[in-house]
Amino acid sequence: MRQFDIYDNPSAASATFAPYVLVLQSHYIELKSVVAAPLVTDKLPTDVEISLTFEGKALVLALTELGSIPVARLRRPLGNLLSKDYEIHRALDRLFKGF
C-alpha cells in the first residue's frame, strides 16, 4: 500500500457519492489502519480540496472528510495519484497550516 493509492470505497453507505478513497499516509509507516480521504462526485472543490478525473469520472478529493480506514478493508489499488503530489500536499498544508 503506497501513498496516494486509490481504492474502492469499502463503505456501502457512502460508495454511491464517494466511489473511491485515496490513501494519504506515507507508505513508510505501516499500521493496521491508514489515513485516507474520499474521492467524491457531489461536491465543488474549495481551497483545501482538489478537482481531478479518475477512470473518466470527475471527482473531488475531499480532504476535509479524511479519516482512518482499517487496512484489511482495502482490497487492491485501482491506481495512484502520485502525479498530483504537489497539489495534494499544497491542499493539506492549507488545511493544517492555513496557507
Keywords for this entry:
SH3 type barrels, 32% strand, 7 strands, 99 residues, globular
N to C succession of SSEs = EEEEEEEH
Poorly predicted runs: none
**Total domain modules:** 1
- Output the structural class: alpha+beta
Number of strands: 7
| Sheet with most strands | 7 strands, antiparallel
Assembly classification? single chain
Q: N-to-C terminal Cα separation, in Å?
A: 29 Å
Using the coordinates above, name the CATH class.
Mainly Beta
Helix content: 10-25%
Please compute the radius of gyration using only Cα atoms: 12 Å
CATH architecture descriptor name: Roll
Strand content: 25-35%
Q: Taking all residues together, what is the mean pLDDT?
A: 94
Total of helices: 1
Structure description:
This protein is an alpha+beta fold. It has a single domain (5-97), classed as SH3 type barrels (Roll), CATH 2.30.30.110. Helices cover 13% and strands 32% of the residues. The protein is built from one helix and seven strands. The chain has one helix spanning 85-97, and strands at 5-8, 20-23, 33-40, 50-54, 57-61, 67-70, 79-80. Strands 1, 2, 3, 4, 5, 6 and 7 form a seven-stranded antiparallel β-sheet that branches. The longest helix has 13 residues, at 85-97. 25% of the residues are buried.
